[in-house]
């Protein structure tokens, strides 16, 4: 009896010290899962990689199948389209390159070109200036000698009307001879000037317009100089021809006419040099204005000169290119 009591007491003490848990099986499962080693890789990444690999493989096989199943007509058409596209691309590049070349000339380059032309033409203009001055001095000196001879004869003995007429005749001959020499000098200057400008045109291919305009302006100045020289000589010859043949002409009138002629000749030489300087300045301004107007033409100028401006020229070429593209497509 006492033994049973002791066993019961020991059992009660044991149960009180270690009570039973209700979720023993769940705790055991969680504990084992927490200590279990498993793969930490994100499942979504594996799915993406697999999908991408599938796409790459499918596109590869699909490309191979397309290459095998391509129609020869389609292949030929694609080849023709590629050739036509390259041709149109090359043509557009060429048009743009030409436009860039036409726009590349800056005012600084234009000034440099004109300065080069002026430097090449300077020896010719200086030689012309010197020749004109020498010719004028020789002619006026010769006319003065004739007048001095007539005055000497008049002082020594009373000169006859025939002596006056003879002197006027020799003075007229001197005028004609000087006028002929001047014409040769001016013609030689013009010929050499044209040669220099043509040579510059070959060197400066981009400045053909400037060279052409300069040649035209120089031609105008030379023609004006020739006309002025002929008119001056012709006016003095007309005065000599108007002198009476029978009566002795007034020596003072002849002397005054010769002096005025020589003054005008010397002044004309100086004016010609000034006109050449202004020619270069006006030429540069005119070329700049022309290029500015060609880049932004007014409606009036566009209607008067169709296709003459840079904008219209490029627009026409671009329209033709677009039509060609549409026709090719």
Automatic annotation (TrEMBL):
> Which portions of the chain have biased composition (kind: Low complexity)?
292-310
Q: Where is this region: Disordered?
A: 290-310
Q: Where is the signal peptide?
A: 1-17
The keyword Cytoplasm is assigned to this record: no
Name the keywords, alphabetized.
Signal
Q: What is this protein called?
A: Zgc:162608
Q: Which organism is it from?
A: Scophthalmus maximus
